[in-house]
């Protein structure tokens, strides 16, 4: 089949999908059907993702994480490094947007790219996260599956050529579906999508997110079984005065969650300073450090599900683990999660937040029991502590409350949890804590208050503004000939290519003027001798505010737009004049 025929078939398919939307069914019914498809696909993706992690883990380690290193499994020191390297290579070569927590990247796609994402992110994020988590990297599964689900929803929306507004909703619906499938928490997943991802409420968006979440949860039940995500300890408030202990727990949790958030953010910024070190090597080094720490604290390796389950089990770690060990695990998990994700590993922060909260709550519960023996068991405080840390780190108090109820299916947690979360969030606000997602996105120029929605520089992408018919010059052209071209053209600068048609630099009248001042022989000097090779580059899906920032940082008035996976393949050019024209033409 010829390439032209394939393109014609694809165009006809897109038209038929558009015809289906407009004629065969009403728009709302079509969108609801797509939401069901997204939920089904997200549930299946979550099932596959979970088994990928399990497969990597069982291939590398037959023993549980908490046995291992101190028991002679010394080789596991190197496993997180290997996982970091493999995951880093997959991300570096196939989809760099798959790097990170997952949730900030999903929010960024919703806010800055209209919900558009590349389908390959589904596979790349799954593989990279499976390598990171399965080999012992200190990260969780929820961030990756949220980004995977968002990519699934976006891909289906783009396939059916839905409008940008609905594409964002389908991406959020996919994220909710993935979260619902992994945590068996469809209600919390819906609230998370509305509270954190979309940050706005409309009846249609809510309906689509609910449809997707329910279908994904049902799919997960069929494939994985109907089990609670975490066990619930014996729970109950013996006396109303016991709420005072939860009040104190809430006060303690706020600064601890803030420390976790700031440490993680610092680690990401710190590793970004070493620009000469390839990203996969950074992830490998981070994994090696985590492996060494795991030699002394094997419980911090991996997501931490086994340890949290043990803490919450009756007669488990909440009563048998010593206070010094619990304190060490809190500090160790904060450090190792920050290193794993900050160095470039792929994973989420929800499960590490639950781990830190469980250890903190158990430590607090044991201490309280020494003073008040008749209060609720330490496991109850561990359960509440989990919700407290997550509520601050993710800045999602409502999601935290509902999620803790759903994953334990124990209503007795609601009252002390609501009370403590309120105290913790008030404390966090007083401390100026905004959560890790807001910190990461603010560093990329995205505010979560919604105030930027009407600014075209904040919403338009490079592909919408760039000039595709570009005048280019060869690096073997003389400077004199370039000066003649500039005199004859209305352009003042040109991208420079080599003999293979690859982008190698940029040259403008500024470089010509400098060459003239330096008394360079313009007839003999080639462009490659005066061109600027340290080019600022842009991805077609980058938002204009990022393009403008790169222009300012590099002190240039034009920027080359290249293929995401091939920085030498030129696809467009943007100048300041192009940006101003787009700004004036916007409504």
The Cα radius of gyration reads 26 Å
Residue windows where pLDDT falls under 50 for at least 5 positions: 1-24, 63-72
Shape: elongated
Question: How are the strands ordered across the major sheet?
Answer: 1-2-3
**Distance N to C terminus:** 44 Å
Number of strands: 6
> SS-based structural class?
mainly alpha
CATH superfamily of the largest domain: Clc chloride channel
Strand content: 5-15%
- The CATH class of the largest domain: Mainly Alpha
CATH architecture title of the largest domain: Orthogonal Bundle
Please name the CATH topology of the largest domain.
Clc chloride channel
In percent, how helical is the residue content? 55-70%
Count of domain modules: 3
Instruction: Please report the number of helical segments.
Output: 25
Notes on the structure:
Strand 2 and strand 3 form a beta hairpin. The strands form two sheets. The protein has a three-stranded mixed beta sheet. The chain has a three-stranded mixed beta sheet with strand order 4-5-6. It is elongated, with a radius of gyration of 26 Å. The N terminus is likely disordered. It has three domains: 207 residues, Clc chloride channel (Orthogonal Bundle), CATH 1.10.3080.10; 204 residues, Clc chloride channel, CATH 1.10.3080; 130 residues, Roll (CBS-domain). The protein is built from 25 helices and six strands. Helix 2 packs parallel to helix 5, helix 4 packs antiparallel against helix 7 and helix 10 crosses helix 18. With 587 residues, it is mainly alpha-helical.
């Amino acid at each position: 089949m010829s390439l032209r025929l394939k393109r014609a078939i694809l165009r006809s398919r897109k038209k038929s999908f558009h015809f289906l939307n407009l004629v065969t069914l009403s728009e709302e019914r079509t969108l609801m059907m797509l939401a069901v498809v997204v939920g089904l696909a997200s549930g299946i993706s979550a099932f596959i993702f979970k088994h990928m992690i399990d497969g990597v883990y069982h291939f590398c380690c037959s023993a549980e994480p908490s046995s291992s290193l101190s028991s002679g499994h010394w080789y596991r020191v190197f496993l997180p490094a290997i996982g970091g390297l493999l995951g880093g290579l997959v991300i570096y070569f196939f989809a760099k947007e798959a790097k990170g927590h997952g949730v900030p990247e999903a929010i960024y796609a919703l806010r800055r790219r209209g919900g558009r994402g590349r389908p390959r992110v589904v596979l790349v994020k799954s593989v990279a996260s499976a390598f990171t988590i399965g080999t012992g990297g200190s990260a969780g599964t929820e961030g990756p599956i949220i980004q995977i689900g968002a990519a699934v929803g976006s891909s289906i929306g783009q396939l059916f050529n839905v409008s940008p507004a609905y594409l964002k909703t389908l991406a959020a619906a996919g994220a909710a579906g993935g979260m619902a499938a992994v945590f068996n928490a469809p209600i919390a997943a819906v609230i998370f999508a509305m509270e954190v991802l979309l940050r706005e409420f409309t009846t249609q968006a809510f309906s689509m997110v609910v449809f997707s979440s329910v279908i994904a949860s049902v799919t997960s039940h069929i494939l994985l079984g109907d089990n609670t995500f975490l066990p619930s300890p014996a729970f109950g408030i013996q006396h109303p005065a016991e709420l005072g202990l939860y009040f104190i727990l809430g006060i303690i949790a706020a600064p601890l969650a803030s420390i976790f958030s700031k440490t993680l953010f610092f680690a990401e910024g710190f590793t970004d300073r070493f620009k000469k070190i390839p990203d996969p090597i950074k992830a490998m080094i981070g994994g090696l450090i985590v492996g060494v720490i795991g030699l002394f604290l094997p419980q911090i390796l991996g997501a931490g599900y086994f340890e949290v389950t043990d803490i919450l089990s009756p007669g488990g770690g909440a009563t048998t683990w010593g206070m010094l060990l619990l304190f060490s695990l809190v500090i160790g998990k904060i450090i190792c999660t920050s290193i794993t994700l900050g160095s470039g590993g792929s994973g989420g922060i929800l499960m590490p937040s639950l781990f830190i909260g469980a250890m903190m709550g158990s430590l607090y519960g044991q201490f309280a029991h020494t003073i008040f023996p008749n209060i609720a068991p330490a496991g109850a405080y561990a359960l509440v502590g989990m919700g407290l840390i997550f509520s601050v780190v993710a800045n999602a108090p409502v999601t935290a409350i509902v999620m803790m109820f759903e994953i334990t299916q124990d209503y007795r947690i609601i009252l002390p949890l609501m009370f403590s979360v309120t105290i913790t969030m008030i404390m966090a606000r007083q401390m100026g804590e905004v959560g890790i997602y807001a910190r990461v996105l603010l560093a990329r120029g995205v505010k979560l208050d919604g105030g930027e929605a009407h600014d075209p520089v904040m919403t338009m992408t490079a592909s919408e503004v760039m000039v595709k018919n570009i005048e280019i010059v060869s690096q073997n052209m003389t400077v004199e000939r370039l000066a003649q071209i500039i005199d004859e053209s209305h352009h003042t600068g040109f991208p420079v290519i080599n003999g293979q048609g690859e982008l190698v630099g940029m040259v403008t009248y500024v470089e010509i003027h400098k060459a003239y001042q330096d008394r360079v022989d313009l007839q003999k000097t080639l462009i490659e001798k005066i061109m600027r090779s340290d080019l600022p580059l842009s991805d077609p899906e980058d938002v204009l505010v990022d393009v403008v920032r790169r222009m300012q940082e590099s002190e240039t008035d034009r920027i080359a737009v290249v293929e995401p996976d091939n920085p030498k393949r030129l696809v467009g050019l943007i100048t300041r004049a192009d940006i101003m024209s787009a700004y004036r033409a916007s409504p």
